[in-house]
From TrEMBL:
It holds the Pfam family GGDEF. This is GGDEF domain-containing protein. It is found in: Cell membrane. It is a multi-pass membrane protein. Keywords: Cell membrane, Membrane, Transmembrane, Transmembrane helix. The keyword Transferase does not apply. The keyword Glycoprotein does not apply. Residues 534-672 form the GGDEF domain. Gene3D superfamilies: 3.30.450.40, 3.30.70.270, EAL domain (3.20.20.450), PAS domain (3.30.450.20). It catalyses: 3',3'-c-di-GMP + H2O = 5'-phosphoguanylyl(3'->5')guanosine + H(+). The chain crosses the membrane at residues 12-30. GO terms for cellular component: plasma membrane. GO terms for biological process: cellular response to nitric oxide.
Length: 940
């Protein structure tokens, strides 16, 4: 969650103030340290001054005594030595100098002559002749006061220094010296008397910077008097100020840092140094500093805690704000949601987009064996988390002890503030770390006292869910459940409504439209007929003997049969048609998009009706019984005049009655004429089928002649000799045969008969040369094995293929040209020739006409008929002749009825004819007579 700007500002101010405080405190500490240092410097300076003056005064007073003694001794030497008087004198002098250890007089050889003080009685054996101060006094008449280096007294055995003066004899020669001995202990006593702190130091150095006396006495190898001090700081200070000064130094003797002050001692060849240790004079300062720093750290910490708290409070407030917004937008979503999946997705989306959480998902509790939690909606960074994580709500399974599973299992909200530290979430830790989730909350979705699932929300940061925020999220979950319940209720109502609606328009047993829906559709279809112009029909279907089945085997069996009938009926019609159940065993089929032509529409309905009859008469298996049933069908076409729905229903009812009356398992049309036509057609089909079987067909032969009137061949034309009706015209039965497929057996019969005839003529004189043209229907030619069939007939009959000419119509050559060419070429290779019948009536394109292996074009009789009266027909006839010539084909005109027509055609290059002018189609005997006669006529 982002930190608000004002909070950032506050933190910056806090840091700056803290820095300022730290700066001030540190500056104050430095200052107070400096002050302490200055005070210490003043102190040691003062002490050094006091000590310098003390020592200086002490040396001065001793020197006065030495001078008095020298004067006394020189006077004694001049008048003659009175030892008693000297000793009295010495006694008197030393009384005034408690600091002196001894006052001695040595002779010119250095031997002690008189002495007062410690070890004074031990005098005569002692000599100071080797001491440097004695030597100086002896050798230098002007030596004045001399001060020795510290030495261990030969008499006293103590460290001491000697101050002395030369004694002259009356003649000015060296007469000895007076010595005042001060033990270094005296200096120690003096130094000890001043307070310079536990680690303070006072040192008396001679001018060679060698220690004369030091307090405290240094220990270790530097403890000896006479040690030379070579500190750099000291050297620098003395160079700068040879008389008095101060400096900071860390002693190389005891490693203690000190402020040192020194003074050159008046009357004495040396310096007094006083040092106070930093630890001593900064002791309070240190305490004060520590306290101040502690105080400062406390202040900073307290301020920091304050800021942190305010940041936390701010974050909490922000979270609450966003949770409130989430709640409010969630409520809007509840109001808007169209369905439950959309609602769940939208809530998850809002949790992420408005709530600012990382991911949200809703899982439903399944009641399967594993008590699976099935994710149903999700939003936010997910990356296969849900797909790859198996979650259960069974506490018996490890995967069921996660927050979501627990929330569902317990019905209580599960808050996990840190997945990294919560040991119970170990199984999910890796997946969560990978996706950056740290905290989560799983909110149970409780509907009607049952937990149906959970809404689980993930946050990136730890401790992401505050108390009030949790309360708001719980409310969100409750609202979500309310929304789901509302949508479910709404959906149930809708489903119920749909079901009610469905039941209102459908038959519950068969699921087919019921009477109401049928009537509705019927009304609409009839109303739109004017616009669509398509034909349509209604069929009323009634099961024969259904009542018996129902009564015998019970209603359940009857119901099963009705359901199967419904299914079969539906399979008999197209999707757009309507199959309805009116009730009982009555079904209605409404067929639309039939031909506009009533006869064709009736034929279509007949086909469908028969399909239905066949479907309903095949075996049923109901309640382990086999049932053979039939049905009766009454049909009525939507007539040209606008019938009402009621009228149509009445018509099919009447038609059904007629079908039942006709012996059941049959179809009857309401229209009596159509009924008759359909019946007639059906009868014809049946009788034609029978006729083919009973050999009622025969071939007539129409001669084809050349320009000289000589027969060159014939066209075989089928005739049907109906036992009752006599000779039936091919115009009547060929289209029916085409429609019903009977053309195939019929065509095979014609071909077989024609080939047999060719064989017969091949043995007759004057007939063997004749070719025989056989009409081939489109359906026949399209048979995949047509070539094999022709070859088979030729082989079977032994006919000369050269005498067989197959007549194809132009219209059948439109589709699948390659296949046609292939078939024609195959037969052509076998010796069969081809003539293109009805030429000029179709759409032959010259480009592919050229590719067809044709032998002849036949000018259609429709052009020949008016060739003399209609210039267009004449032009077409002339063009066909010219075309045939240019393609290298022969040309034959059919339908030639007059000499004038023949003459016209002849004058334009057509020299083969067929038509009534020469002969009508003839039975075989008559044709043979015609052929012979024409030959004879030509001969004669
Ligand atoms: N697939 C088959 N079709 C066949 C077969 N036999 C006949 N047919 C086709 O039936 C249609 C009617 O044939 P038909 O009644 O035999 O009529 C043919 C001739 O009689 C008639 N014709 C011949 N000359 C004249 C004439 O001068 N005037 C006139 N009005 N009619 C005449 O023409 C018919 C032959 O036509 P076509 O076949 O186009 O050469 C007819 O379409 C036949 O094709 C068969 O076996 N199979």
């Amino acid at each position: 969650m982002a930190r608000p700007p004002y909070l950032t500002h506050r933190i910056v101010v806090f840091v700056l103030v803290d820095l300022l405080i730290a700066f001030i405190v540190i500056a104050a500490l430095f200052q107070s340290r400096q002050q302490a240092h200055d005070r210490a410097a003043t102190l040691v300076d003062g002490l050094a001054q006091v000590l310098e003056q003390t020592i200086s005064a002490m040396v001065y007073r001793i020197d006065i005594t030495l001078l008095d003694t020298v004067e006394e001794m020189e006077s004694e030497l001049a008048k003659g030595i009175d030892e008693t008087s000297i000793n009295v004198f010495l006694h008197r002098q030393i009384k005034h100098h408690p600091e002196l250890d001894a006052l001695r007089i040595v002779d010119e050889t250095g031997h002690l002559r008189y002495g007062i003080g410690e070890a004074a009685g031990n005098t005569t054996s002692s000599s100071v002749a080797d001491r440097d101060y004695f030597i100086r006094a002896r050798d230098d008449p002007d030596s004045g006061l001399f001060v020795s280096k510290p030495v261990i007294g030969r008499i006293s055995g103590k460290w001491s220094i000697a101050l002395g003066r030369r004694i002259n004899r009356p003649d000015g020669s060296f007469g000895g010296a007076v010595l005042a001995l001060i033990t270094l202990e005296q200096f120690q006593k003096l130094f000890r008397a001043i307070d310079i702190g536990p680690k303070g130091v006072v040192t008396l150095l001679d001018l060679d910077m060698e220690i004369v006396a030091r307090h405290p006495e240094a220990k270790g190898r530097y403890s000896s008097t006479g040690t030379r001090i070579t500190q750099e700081a000291l050297t620098r200070a003395l160079q700068k100020a040879p008389e008095t000064g101060a400096y900071d130094v860390t002693s190389w003797l005891d490693k203690t840092a000190r402020v040192m002050s020194y003074r050159k001692v008046d009357n004495y060849p040396g310096y007094i140094f006083v040092g106070i240790a930093n630890d001593d004079f900064l002791g309070d300062w240190h305490k004060q500093s520590v306290m101040t720093i502690i105080l400062m750290v406390l202040v900073v910490t307290i301020t920091g805690i304050g800021i942190k708290k305010s940041e936390r409070a701010e974050k909490e407030r922000q979270r609450l704000t966003r949770a409130l917004r989430l709640l409010s937008e969630g409520n809007l979503s509840l109001a808007r949601a169209a369905d439950e999946p959309a609602l769940l997705s939208d809530i998850c989306r809002l949790v992420v987009e408005v709530g600012g959480y990382l991911m949200a998902w809703v899982g439903f509790a399944e009641n399967d064996e594993e008590k699976t939690v099935r994710p149903v909606a999700q939003s936010g960074y997910e990356d296969g988390y849900l797909e790859n994580t198996r979650i259960s709500w069974s506490s018996e399974l490890a995967i069921g002890r996660g927050p979501t599973g627990k929330a569902i299992d317990t019905g209580k909200c599960q808050v996990n503030q840190n997945i990294l530290t919560n040991p119970t979430l170990a199984p999910w830790r890796e997946a969560a770390i990978k996706r950056g989730y740290t905290a989560s909350i799983a909110l149970p979705l409780v509907s009607h006292a049952q937990t149906i699932g959970a809404l689980t929300i993930y946050a990136a940061e730890s401790d992401a869910f505050g108390t009030e925020e949790i309360a708001l999220l719980e409310e969100l979950a409750r609202n979500l459940v309310f929304g789901m319940e509302t949508l479910r209720t709404r959906s149930q109502i809708k489903t119920a409504q749909t079901e009610i609606e469905y039941l209102a328009y459908h038959d519950p047993l068969t699921d087919l439209p019921n009477r109401r829906l049928l009537l509705d559709r019927l009304h609409r279809t009839l109303a739109s007929r004017e616009r669509t112009k398509c034909g349509g029909a209604l069929m009323l279907i009634d099961l024969d003997n259904f009542k018996t089945l129902n009564d015998t085997f019970g209603h359940e069996t009857g119901d099963q049969l009705l359901r199967q009938v419904a299914e079969r009926l539906s399979n008999c019609v197209r999707k757009g048609d309507t199959v309805a159940r009116l009730g009982g065993d009555e079904f209605v089929v409404m067929v639309e998009n039939l031909s506009e032509n009533p006869e064709e529409a009736a034929a279509q309905i007949k086909t469908i009706g028969e399909k239905i009859l066949a479907a309903l008469s095949s075996r049923y298996s109901v309640s382990e019984h086999e049932h053979h049933g039939t049905a009766s069908v009454g049909a009525a076409l939507f007539g040209d005049h606008q019938e009402s729905v009621e009228e149509l229903l009445k018509q099919v009812d009447i038609a059904l009655y007629q079908a039942k009356a006709a012996g059941r398992n049959t179809l009857r049309f309401f229209d009596p004429e159509l009924q008759a036509a359909v019946q007639a057609r059906a009868a014809m089909e049946a009788t034609l089928r029978q006729g083919i079987r009973d050999n009622q067909l025969l071939l007539y032969y129409q001669p084809q002649v050349d320009g000289a009137g000589q027969s060159v061949g014939a066209e075989a034309l089928v005739r049907w000799h109906h036992p009752d009706r006599g000779m039936v015209s091919p115009h009547e039965f060929i289209p029916l045969a085409e429609e019903t497929g009977l053309i195939l057996p019929l065509g095979e019969w014609v071909l077989e008969t024609a080939c047999s005839q060719i064989v017969a003529w091949s043995h007759q004189p004057g007939m063997a040369h004749l070719s025989l043209a056989v009409n081939v229907s489109a359906r026949q030619f399209r048979q995949t094995d047509f070539v094999e069939k022709v070859q088979g007939v030729l082989k079977r009959t032994g006919a000369n293929p050269q005498r067989l000419k197959l007549e194809l119509t132009e219209s059948m050559l439109v589709d699948n040209v390659e296949d046609i060419i292939e078939k024609m070429s195959a037969l052509k290779r076998a010796g069969v020739s081809f003539s293109l019948d009805d030429f000029g009536t179709g759409y032959s394109s010259l480009s592919y006409l050229k590719r067809l292996p044709l032998d002849q074009l036949k000018i259609d009789q429709s052009f020949v008929r008016d060739v003399l009266t209609d210039p267009n027909d004449a032009a077409i006839a002339r063009t066909i002749v010219a075309l045939a010539q240019s393609l290298g084909l022969s040309v034959m005109a059919e339908g030639v009825e007059t000499e004038a027509q023949r003459a016209f055609l002849s004058s334009h290059g057509c020299h083969h004819y067929q038509g009534y002018y020469f002969s009508r189609p003839l039975p075989v005997e008559s044709f043979e007579l015609f052929a012979h006669r024409s030959v004879e006529e030509t001969i004669h």
